[in-house]
Amino acid sequence: MVDAQTLTLKALEWDKVKEMLKSLCLTPMGKERVDFLRPSAELEIINRRLQETGEALELLRFSPPLRETIDIQPLIQRAEKEGILNEEELLKLRDFAIVSQQVKTFVLQNQENTPLLARSAKGIPDLTSLIGMITSAISEDGRLKDSASPKLKEIRENIIATTKNIQDKLNEMVNSPTLQRYLQEPIVTIREGRFCLAVKREFRDKIEGVVHSTSGSGATLFIEPLAVLEQGNRLRELEREEEEERLKILRKLSKQVKEKAQILQRVRDKIALFDFSFAKGRLALRLQAYRPRLNREGILRLKNARHPLLNPRIAVPVSLELTPEKRVLIITGPNTGGKTTTLKMVGLLSYMSQCGLFIPADEESTLPAFETILADIGDEQSIEQNLSTFSSHITQLKRILENLNGLSLVLLDELGAGTDPAEGAALARAIVEYLADKENIRLLIATHLAELKLLPFANPHIRGASFEFDPISLQPTFNLVMDAIGKSHAIEVAQRLGLNEELIRRANEFLSHSNPYSELLVSIERERQALREEREKIKELQEQYEMRLKQLEKEREEILRSAREKASELLKEVEDKVGEILKAKSAKKKKRAEWQKLWEQVKGTEVPQLKVGERVLIGTLKREGTVLDIKGERVIVDVEGIRMQIPPSELTPLPSERKETFEPPLPPAKTIIAREVNLRGMTVDEALYELDKELNRASLEGTGKLRIVHGKGKGILRRAIWEYLKSHPLVKEIRLGEVWEGSYGATIVELK
Question: What count of other Cβ atoms lies within 10 Å of the Cβ of residue 54?
Fold first, then answer.
């Protein structure tokens, strides 16, 4: 017996969605994941799956390096059983390993916005050694390289040499005038792996050898001459040795695969995950889908949703909502108006989201995690069980009621159809009200029954919705209106199609008698339409108000931001100016303090001895000046360009600004050096260049000695200078300086 879940998935056409997803996979492993795709009812798991899809969608912007590859699992299993993988299989396994490393690098390079997939990428083991081993042994054309082993190289060299000897000998026989008349063709051919000559049958006894084949007509014998028979045997032996060595090398490589079997299996699983994730991302792009929001409150809200199997360019979007309070939605409207498609859409989108797929609906859409999704859609008869359409519906309905578990989504199409209308309507109402009383049920029903259309007015947990119908064009608009009651419009359609007016009139009469609620429904629908229009106007005004409010808020923020920027610039300008003023004031204050201190030191002492050109402090003015001339009791001083006569008692000599340095004792007169060159701080090349110029200049000027200042430091420059001086033609003698000459920080050179 087919279970309710299987019938539901068949009714929803879930397999078509899976096939669409599989077509976007690049590997057998990714497609295998699609086959085992099942929804989860755990919000954490669903969110992780949706995050994987979102991150894959982000990575698709940068063209992932994943490409079509084989499933390496059969190769791994054969290697584990001591099987030998051939060259082609090893190359395919190597290519798979290369792809895995490229995918790992790619994902980690773009991990900033993809933490979940980056964590999976970090779990891909390093296969560089295996890739290198296979690449070094097998060429791209699928043949073992000569360098795969020293023995293989030697065997192949012998094969080439032996083959050449055989060909040379046979070519010599072919070109022999004596033997040419015995040959059918002057060529060397290969038969059964042996080099042969094409000999005319009648001259069989003229050429000794082994016959390996005969032409179709029998006129030609392909003979391997005795002259090359031994070498031919040697060649076959070498070929056998080559094959043995080939198998030995392949066995060694296959053993490496076996040793890395578990690692390769992990890599396979990772590549399957990435292929599956990228396929989910591609599906989202194809469907123009977004990530749905999930909620724990049991709210099902779809905004501008489309059936995933319909062309997104022509599908009319549908918006609907179910909540814990309004948990049943009865959808009415004309035939072929979209009721059944909507039921399937809601079921598929719920199923897709819980499988981690994005859904073709606006981002504001939100869905709960259903424990079960069950549907009875379609008019199939059960031939095997000899059940009518009605009986099949009841059987499936029974299964649905028996399998309700936790929060459940139930989809029922044409409930109560296929039997007596009155009985069907009564049964349908009983089922709807029974399910409406269950808080954990979200129920969608498509119906034409008038009794069900009235239920939204009688039960607070039930809402109505209707697909609109254009009576002028006689076409459904596929536009779903919430909280509306729809008619089937059968009589209007019949009238527009030209059915006899008398029949139309009688049908309307019968309708008014058979359906006492029709006038009530029409009246209620008119009132609801007026309320909807009023609500739309209010909504439009509210949107305009909110838009204007946002605009004003944006303008306010812009004004405040501009004011803050200007204030900040002005404040910085003021701070800079104040800082400069304070800095100048501080410097001047410091200078005055120094003058005051100096004045206090010299006050009351003898009148200082002044010199022309000396810098002095003018005590009464607290200013500095320069002595220009001394005339008895009057000293002419330049104070910032102004000549002033000031008594010597008011002047204090200022100390020289030159830093105090150690003054070595003067050397004896006979050791005074007339010339000096300072090479400190220079590189060796720079110092030697300058030294060479100074030596030449000193020699031309007749200077006897030269003092070279190179500093102490690590002695590198001193050693280089000494090496240079030892071989210089102008140098007579070199030595380190005395204490007063700079000690070992200087070198004294006596010139010739």
Answer: 22
What the block records as the tokens of 676 is: 């000096």
Residue 114: alpha-carbon gap to chain centroid: 7
The percent of residues above 90 in pLDDT, for the chain, comes to 51
Q: Which CATH class is domain 672-751?
A: alpha beta
CB atoms within 10 A of CB 7: 21
Distance CA 553, CA 335 (A): 49
pLDDT tier at 2, thresholds 50, 70, 90: low
| Token code pair at residue 696 | 């030449």
Fold of 8-127+260-287: MutS, DNA mismatch repair protein; Chain A, domain 3 (1.10.1420)
pLDDT in tens, 434-488: 999 999 999 999 988 878 888 988 899 999 998 876 655 556 667 888 877 766 6
Cβ distance 410 to 446 under 8 Å? Answer: no
217 pLDDT higher than 50:
yes
Nearest in space to 492 (alpha carbons), one of 508, 506, 477? 508
Q: Give, in order, the Cα–Cα distances in Å from 454 to each of 432, 459, 460.
A: 12, 9, 12
Partners of 209 in beta bridges: 225
Side by side, which strands form the sheet with 366-367?
Answer: 293-294, 366-367, 300-305, 318-322
Domains of the chain, by residue range, sit at 8-127+260-287, 150-232, 293-485, 604-653, 672-751
Per CATH, the number for 604-653 is 2.30.30.140
- Residues 625, 626, 629, 630, Cα dihedral to 10°: 60
Cα pseudo-dihedral 580, 586, 591, 597, rounded to 10: 180
DSSP assignment string, 305-323:
E--TTS-TTTPPPEEEEE-
Assess whether pLDDT exceeds 80 at residue 494. Answer: no
| 423 vs 449: CA distance, rounded Å | 11
Distance CA 714, CA 462 (A): 96
Q: CA 406 to CA 396: how far, in whole Å?
A: 19
